[in-house]
Amino acid sequence: MNLVQKTEHWGDTHHSHFLDVIRFILGLFIFIKGITFLSDMKPLQDLISTRFNYVPVFAVHYIAFAHLVFGPLLAIGLLTRFSAIVQIPILIGAVFFINMAPGFDAINSELWLSIIVLLLLVFFFISGSGNWSVDEYMKTHIKHREV
């Protein structure tokens, strides 16, 4: 059993229902943030362009797409680890390149919110989806069909 399998086994055996509620709220929050970005992309483009000279259109669309698609998947617990790993680079960029950049007002920024979301994404990447999730539902029903 390699390290990844050991980590998945630990995450599957040490997961409470409270964490499932946190996962749902996190996915819903990320989805709402994606709607906010999609409804008005100009502030996001301006924010990224203040930190970088060249703003690829792909980056802004990737952020909105990832939030809109993988936020709900995270909320319902479908492909939880994959959904978290897709979101982690976005939050690393938000924490280290946007919110902690010199000259950026850390008090009025979303630095702490970005840090909390990043830590929760890393946690759910390690621990998995939990008992109240589509992943768990599919695991138990597939096992019953095979027996």
UniProtKB/TrEMBL annotation:
Parts of the chain that traverse the membrane: 21-39, 59-79, 86-105, 111-134
Membrane topology: Multi-pass membrane protein
GO cellular component annotations of the record: plasma membrane
Main location: membrane
Superkingdom classification of source: Bacteria
Keywords: Cell membrane, Membrane, Transmembrane, Transmembrane helix
Location of the protein in the cell: Cell membrane
InterPro entries: DoxX, DoxX-like_oxidoreductase
Family, as annotated: Belongs to the DoxX family.
PANTHER family (alphabetical): INNER MEMBRANE PROTEIN YPHA-RELATED, OXIDOREDUCTASE CATD-RELATED
Protein name: DoxX family protein
